[in-house]
Design goal:
The chain is an alpha+beta fold. It has 5 helices and 16 strands. A hairpin with a 5-residue loop joins strand 10 and strand 11. The two termini are about 30 Å apart.
Length: about 300
């Protein structure tokens, strides 16, 4: 067991980044397709194809999910992923070609490097070419390359962050995993203690939530944050059930990010089901509870694996 999202058979993950520009792309590929749901909780999201994931809409499976830096500019990386997968013959068969179905979400990292260095088609393709099933780098790589947390004082007191993953398996073979790029406005907490977040002039952690409460009339913020990620399970789920699991996974964000789901974040979580295990009744609550747990651990791993400024 790898104890990350690669424990889900049929999933491979690739990163690409520009370390000087401090931005990057992570692609999660399901070559045989995966049922997908989504839950958007932050009020400033940047996404693609999320309407398609509504259970009332026709498309049942996706071929990949793209997580990207670059704010809305980073959505271009999805086009490179589409081109790559089409060349591999992966996608929805429309007769004349196969159209890859690729939802995506972006985070804001434009102020953490070269503002004109943004994920594009080439970086999306490179992420696909770097996709493996055996190894998964964590920290400030891929979509986590330019991630930061703790924005109460803007760029003055934030901490470096990154992307992390974790997976757990039950005795009867149910596996649930998370891959999370952590770029939150708030602080990161482990067992109630701030381990990354806004720092004061002396380098001590401030309490972002408390700072907002006590200085609400004098502070000015903007939506330049967002935590995005993918939950994956080998249990067969419908789109509606996958959406419910994605929603429950947000509990994991709430356990370790404070504040979370603000108007300054575009927090978005996808849930993929590879349908390897089909049970008489899908254990949605079990998968959702596990999803929250692995999401919390993925956040902590992403922050801890990132190199400090």
């Amino acid at each position: 067991m790898k104890h990350n999202i690669l424990d889900i058979k049929g999933i491979k993950v690739g990163h690409a980044q520009n370390s000087e520009g401090k931005t990057g792309v992570t692609v999660i590929i399901a070559e045989k397709g995966a049922v997908c749901g989504v839950d958007v909780r932050g009020a400033a999201p940047g996404t693609r194809e999320t309407d398609l994931l509504n259970p009332i809409n026709a498309m049942e499976k996706v071929n990949a999910v793209v997580l990207s830096g670059g704010s809305a500019f980073g959505l271009e990386a999805s086009c490179g992923v589409m081109n790559y997968l089409e060349e591999q013959g992966i996608g929805f068969d429309v007769g004349v070609t196969k159209v890859p179905i690729i939802p995506a979400a972006v985070l804001y990292d434009l102020e953490n490097g070269n503002i004109f260095c943004r994920p594009d088609k080439n970086m999306g393709r490179q992420a696909c070419e770097n996709a493996y099933t055996e190894t998964l780098p964590e920290g400030d790589v891929g979509a986590g390359c330019g991630a930061t947390v703790g924005k109460l004082r803007g760029t003055l007191g934030w901490c470096n962050s990154g992307i992390g993953s974790w997976a757990e398996t039950t005795e009867n073979g149910i596996t649930v995993a998370a891959l999370i790029a952590v770029n939150a406005f708030g602080d990161i907490l482990e067992n109630g203690k701030i381990i990354a977040g806004t720092k004061d002039e002396e380098g001590n952690f401030l309490d972002t939530a408390r700072g907002i409460i006590h200085h609400a009339s004098t502070l000015s913020f903007s939506g330049k944050n967002t935590t995005i990620g993918v939950i994956a399970t080998n249990v067969k789920l419908t789109k509606a059930q996958a959406a419910k699991v994605a929603g429950m996974a947000h509990d994991g964000l709430a356990r370790c990010i404070s504040p979370v789901h603000t108007t300054l974040d575009g927090d978005t979580l996808f849930c993929l089901s590879t349908e390897e295990i089909e049970l008489p009744t899908a254990p949605v609550d079990l998968v959702g509870i596990m999803a929250a747990k692995v999401t919390e651990q993925a956040v902590l791993r992403g922050v801890k694996a990132a190199k400090p400024f």
